Amino acid sequence: MSELPQYKQANQTVTFDYPEHPLQVTVLTDAIVRIFEDRGEKGQSYAIEGNKETKAAYTVTDAGDHYEVKTAALTIKLDADRHVDAYDQDGNALVTDYRGKRQLLDKGIDKVHERLVKAEGHSVSKSTVSSDTGFFELIKSLAPDEHLYGLGDKTGYLDKRGFEYDNWNADNPQPQLEHFKNLYKSIPVMLGLKNGHPFGLFFDNTYKAHFDMGKENPNYYFYSAVEGNLDYYILGGSSLKDVVTNYTYLTGRVPLPQKWTLGYQQSRWGYSASQKQVQDIADGLKKYDLPCDAIHFDVDYMDGYRVFTWDKNKFEGDPKAFVAKLKKRGIKVIPIIDPGVKKDPDYKTYAEGVKHDYFVKTPDNKVYINKVWPGDSAFPDFGRPEVRKWWANNNKFLTDNGVGGVWIDMNEPASFEGDIPDDTVFSDQETPSTHKKMHNVYGHNMAKATYTGLKEQQGRRPYVITRAAYAGTQKYATVWTGDNRSIWPHIQMMIPQICNLGMSGFSFVGTDIGGFASDTNAELLTRWIEAAIFSPLLRNHAAMGTRHQEPWSFGEPTLSIYRKYLKLRYHFIPYLYDLFAQESQNGLPIMRPLVLNYDDDPRTRDLNDEFMVGDDILVAPIVEKSKIKRLVYLPAGKWIDFWNNREYDGQQDIVVDAPLDKLPLFIKANTLLPWGPSVDHISEEPDKAMTFKLFGNEGTYEHYQDDGLDFNYQNGEFNRYEVTVKDGEVAVNLLHHGFEPAYQTITVDLPDSSVTLHYDTASDGYVLK
Ligand code: GLC
């Protein structure tokens, strides 16, 4: 063994002078430690904004054969051979370097057979590492009892152990199943439970990266990237929830959304090809008594797919008037915007971009052109602040037309004519850089630009929905999971995918309900609206040329069941909004896996077909064809069947009936929940009354209220109510009164009666009349 290196300390950073590459250990907080090795990459983090270092006490000790950097929550040990091992405050191993060598996976194939296998169109990779990885590699040991989560939108199951993934944002229309290595987003955070002890690891590197989660060998997992610095964060915490809170402290949280964005949204590629089609959809929603808050306009509304144009011929010459008319009916318009700007010298956006040098360039300084919807297109250089500003301002065209938000797509960036070459010049802020470095943050920077524009132009909380993202994009945009398919494996995948996105900081997320590609059917659509009814983004969207999947497309009983669940959703919107108010403080997702709430219960660690909404609701949808009964695992505590009030003990599996119209739903016993009114959309007028429902005998609930629209809540314009039921008595405590009007009445539905309290100006409280 070699000698321990020298070290020096500067504030909260300790630099260990290993030969060749010194290693820096920075204590950001008690539970967040950064490990950094300079490999010559310059530039700032896109994921982390601002200085996240807070004053945290730590010690460095020489323990003979290793050093120990110790905070209140973490101990990092570094030995003479550069091994870095992290332990929690009780000495439990969390993240430890693997001491052995990697053993490449032998797939037992020779050259001759490889050719043969490839001839039928199969792909062959000899080891689990794709050929261009290996710039550096971090190999960490895997315990027999270790579960791994996170990684954003990856396909497959909740527990990522045993699979491999790449981080390289891609638009791949093939059926996205568990063998897929990468989708649209690169969120390099993983969370784990090692022998039941929670931790997180965040690798802040935008280059193409690879994660092998113990597929190659059950004794280790590894991470590699093709370039960049070795720059990672070890996250501790006494629970998985703490780890998520710490991770979102670092990369940011989903800001409080406008309340109506939690309403139902109807979409289809093709609607906006004519005003009549959109009108028919709006009429259909009304005729069939289906609540709805938004209709999305796909690429068809534009003039020849030119972004920031509106084909007036399709909208009776006046899109603004039409948008206003829909808004009056409670339906907001959300148009799509792609990054590709049509190459057309007579088109303003293209001409401006060329004139000011806003597009990415070939290495020989020509505007780089590839094909997307409009044909030949140029790509804005979103890494540059000036380009983001230009793009932000371009959105004024849409906000002037009265849109409710903007849906941004194709921002991996996608290209139809081959991949964008690695050396294409994309800026890293003010510095010329490469596509290779900036690819994975392209969507992030486009989202940030769009958010900034909308905030300035609308003065409201921006509603931006993006397909591509990097760690930290959650600060700027809601996400959807891209082009799924109308197949049962994709309704199944929705649960772990949304749950892992949630644990990766992306709490405002949804999937295309009914499936985007391929033809849906009545049973699949029905089960999908049931399973997705608590997904924060609730949007039915389908590809052009697929079978129609509006709620009424299959007649009865699909329509009535669909309506029943949409109405249920609207009753739960105040609860979802409360969860967002909490999330903006603690980063905890709305829709979450059971393991996040019960990480000490081994049964929850790879549950893929159930989830929770906050801490109080457990949902166990049917996600298999023709199934009408299912097994439900209930964790500790007592649980009440939402539909018939039957009470069950937890820590057991129960069998429940689930005919086509039933979503198995359980509420934790002794829970009070807000219950929004029956409405056809979320009004911009304040609610005058609120109802709470009691499940069990007693309960306490803290409820949040503000105008649901703008940023005034940041100046204290919100109300917090504490509602309590104990020994049959109902009490409401107005904890914070900063928003007017407070509810005039608050009604609490008890199991067999209901109590209404009235606002009393004199006491600024609630009284029985
Ligand atoms: C992409 C999007 C999809 C959209 C289509 C047309 O495939 O993922 O949602 O409908 O482009 O714009």
3D structure, described in words:
With 769 residues, the chain is of the alpha+beta class. A hairpin with a 4-residue loop joins strand 8 and strand 9. Helix 6 (385-394) packs across helix 9 (442-458) and helix 11 (522-531) runs parallel beside helix 12. The chain starts with 6 loop residues before the first strand and ends with a strand. The protein binds alpha-D-glucopyranose (GLC). Alpha-D-glucopyranose binds at residues 269, 298-299, 336, 409, 467, 482-483, 541.
Oligomer: single chain
- Let me know the average pLDDT: 96
Q: Which radius of gyration do the C-alpha atoms yield?
A: 26 Å
Measured between the Cα atoms of the first and last residue, the distance is 80 Å
- Taking pLDDT < 50 over at least 5 consecutive residues as the criterion, the unreliable ranges are 128-132
User: How are the strands ordered across the major sheet?
Assistant: 31-30-28-25-21-20-19-33-32
Proportion of residues in extended strands: 25-35%
Work out the helicity level: 10-25%
Largest sheet: 9 strands, parallel
Number of helices: 13
Which ligands accompany this protein? alpha-D-glucopyranose
Which helices and strands, and how do they pair?
Elements: E1 7-10, E2 13-16, E3 23-29, E4 32-37, E5 59-62, E6 66-70, E7 74-79, E8 84-88, E9 93-96, H1 111-119, E10 136-141, E11 146-150, E12 164-167, E13 185-186, E14 189-194, E15 197-203, E16 209-212, E17 220-225, E18 230-235, H2 240-251, E19 264-266, H3 275-287, E20 294-297, H4 319-328, E21 332-337, E22 341-342, H5 348-355, E23 369-372, E24 375-378, H6 385-394, H7 396-400, E25 406-408, E26 425-428, E27 431-434, H8 435-438, H9 442-458, E28 464-466, E29 469-470, E30 478-480, H10 488-503, E31 509-510, E32 512-513, H11 522-531, E33 538-540, H12 558-586, E34 591-592, H13 594-597, E35 611-613, E36 617-619, E37 629-634, E38 638-641, E39 647-649, E40 652-657, E41 665-668, E42 671-675, E43 689-695, E44 699-705, E45 719-726, E46 729-737, E47 745-749, E48 754-760, E49 765-767
Parallel strand pairs: 13-29, 19-20, 19-33, 20-21, 21-25, 25-28, 28-30, 30-31, 32-33, 43-47
Antiparallel strand pairs: 1-2, 2-3, 3-4, 4-18, 5-6, 6-7, 7-8, 8-9, 10-17, 11-14, 12-16, 14-15, 15-18, 16-17, 22-24, 23-24, 26-27, 34-35, 35-36, 36-41, 37-40, 38-39, 38-41, 42-43, 44-45, 45-46, 47-48, 48-49
This protein binds alpha-D-glucopyranose.
The site of alpha-D-glucopyranose has 9 residues, from loops.
